[in-house]
Amino acid sequence: MPGKTTLILEGGAMRGLYSAGVLDVFMKNNINVDAVYGVSAGALFGLNYKSRQIGRALRYNLKYVNNKHYMGLYSLMTTGNIMNKDFCFNKLVYELDKLDFETYKNTPVDFYAVVTNLETGKPEYIKIDDAEKDMEYFRASGSMPFVSKPIKIKGKFYLDGGISDPVPLEKVLETKPGKIIVVLTRPAGYRKKNLHLHALYKLFYGKFPKFVETGSNRYKTYNKTMDLIEKYEAEKKIIVLRPSKFIKIKRTEKDTAKLQSIYDLGVSDCRKKLDQIKKFLRVKKKK
Questions:
Q1: Do residues 232 and 169 make contact, with C-beta atoms less than 8 angstroms apart?
Q2: What is the pTM of this model?
């Protein structure tokens, strides 16, 4: 449907709590969109926007981030995945901090999780209408290379969507959207460096040569995307939210004070831009 308002959420593991802060402000201020494209942590934390659960992403991360069964070296050594499948995608969503599957299903927002197909090396944009049925796609989107096993779904192998399309602005532009809001998790001007990871990708994923090529050139893809975003932002064609200051935070950060800080920065930055966002989207004020 041409003319849709689309929200794009970058990944970045625990930096994704910045986006969680932004989304909570959106929900509290009735900022609604028609479609969401979530990449990696952008998908995992962003799904709470469609399930309309304000505060959930921050709440469970603060509570369980230091539980050895949640995420980290213990999980990697015992399961082969840095994110524990049973804890994160079973116990957490069904018992410890339940995901509202019914609200997710009934909220009129098209949600796409971005994944990378190992055989083709290309991104796929999976529309998820039923989070309970298709939770594995969320898991695949957030499965970081080298510290996650490839996720097999319907005969295809997937990993982190950020490897092939870290911020899918080009894909969204193909849909001829009306308005676009992009939420990044790095400050203005950030670019990835060439870490020369080709040998490592080949060691881990040698039987998937196209994925090896995609992973090795990840920094080029990211930097090209940032150039495009800055161009569209300068032309006032899109709204971009990004951290207004640098907070040093690891991908698997365990310091709850830092997690709270990056979330609070998302809240603060979004509040400062709220009037601009509403004007951009032409949100009518309540009488």
A1: yes
A2: 0.95
